[in-house]
Amino acid sequence: MSVALDDLARRLPGLRLLAGAGDLEHYGRDWTRRWTPAPLAVALPATVEEVQGIVCWANEHGVAIVPSGGRTGLSGGAVAANGELVLSLERMNRVLGFDAADRTLTVQPGMPLEAVHAAARGHGLVYPVDFAARGSCSIGGNIATNAGGIRVIRYGNTREWIAGLKVVAGNGELLDLNRGLVKNSSGYDFRQLMIGSEGTLGIVVEATLKLTDPPPPAQTMLLALPDMDAVLAVFGLFRAKLALQAFEFFTDIALKHVLAHGAQRAIEGEYPYYVVTEFDVPDEAAQEAALAVFGEAMEQGRVLDGVIAQSEAQAAALWRLREGITESLAPHKPYKNDVSVRIGAVPAFLHAMQALLAREYPHIEVVWFGHIGDGNLHINVLKPAGMADADFIAQCEHVTKLLAATLKEHGGSISAEHGIGLVKRPYLDSTRSAAEIALMRGVRQVFDPNGILNPGKLFEAD
């Protein structure tokens, strides 16, 4: 153990430190798998005071810190490949309090999203942000990337559900941001600044989450569609006539991989596009309206076939066709793009994107799916078996540069919900102006004057 680590262990005798090769590999990477993990060590604090002590120690010794949650990210935001100290928050995973009057739940950052859901249900309420990685991602990581997921169309992103944060800034100071207030016009809202900052401004050590009423009974429907224009048309029709909770699409190629991974086919025959949608059915009238809009879409030729879940088990099976895509693609080492445009710009962007991908990847399989209702698309490029990793990454980065330019033309973003991290850092200027990036660097300098927090993520380290 290095002299610096000896000093850390001496200062914080109760701190759990890991330095074994297996631990360094496990905690030093996220789902990107593109960088070789090489952290100095892994620290697992159990208290806010230990987090503060680690940050103060890091400043004195000039050691960079990579904050770590569930490491389910896809942008290299939790990668430690250059001798950084990984600060894992997985031991800080408890509910700290519930306020019935404010309908808030205060939790530690290492709590898995699925556990947050369960805690909220225990009080007859829901924390509505949700996505497939709910069992392994942490609420702290969700906050760091402003995670969205499958119900943004109804509830918005993580940002809308954070009432207050406690954050350890880059100088070790503990900040208590907003304190759960509903109204607070007393200057800058640093709580919102921390959300989506990818651990570059501070380390979330406590979060007060807003809760809401459970949604009314819902119904899940799987639709088969002939083309992308039909997906957009059906979304407009369903949104106008139903109270949508989710509207997710995927392609026939995505379905092929999920079925091969163990999911069950729900519609016979093969179709180019599919949609899983969920909507409120609080009464018989809403049920009849859903059947009517489905029939209307069939008559228009926008929907070619469909199935309505008749039980919770059937609904879960339909959702698996969408939520199982990422896991089913993992063995193929996909290069991932996570992009967004305004909903109104989706049709024009999709046509431009499809033409670009067809031209640039003529012999490479591309799987894409996404959240049409909020303009977010996930593009997965699968590495051919005989292609060298370096050649594959080089080609994908060339195409991503072109994709970033296309996004810029349509007013979009190179990162919708997975952050910038290391993967998308070269393309930040397609989404942010030079003036904005300069201001972002200035903000970072204020909160983390020595640049120890997640350096190299978002933009090149100073």
TrEMBL record:
Residues 35-214 form the FAD-binding PCMH-type domain. One of its GO terms (molecular function) is oxidoreductase activity. Pfam families: FAD-oxidase_C, FAD_binding_4. Signal peptide: none annotated. InterPro entries: FAD-bd_oxidored_4_C, FAD-bd_PCMH, FAD-bd_PCMH-like_sf, FAD-bd_PCMH_sub2, FAD-linked_Oxase-like_C, FAD-oxidored/transferase_4, Oxid_FAD_bind_N, Vanillyl_alc_oxidase_C-sub2. The keyword Flavoprotein applies. The keyword Oxidoreductase applies. Keywords: FAD, Flavoprotein, Oxidoreductase. Its cofactor is FAD. GO terms for biological process: respiratory electron transport chain. SUPFAM superfamilies: FAD-binding/transporter-associated domain-like, FAD-linked oxidases, C-terminal domain. Belongs to the FAD-binding oxidoreductase/transferase type 4 family. This is FAD-binding domain-containing protein. It comes from Dorcoceras hygrometricum.
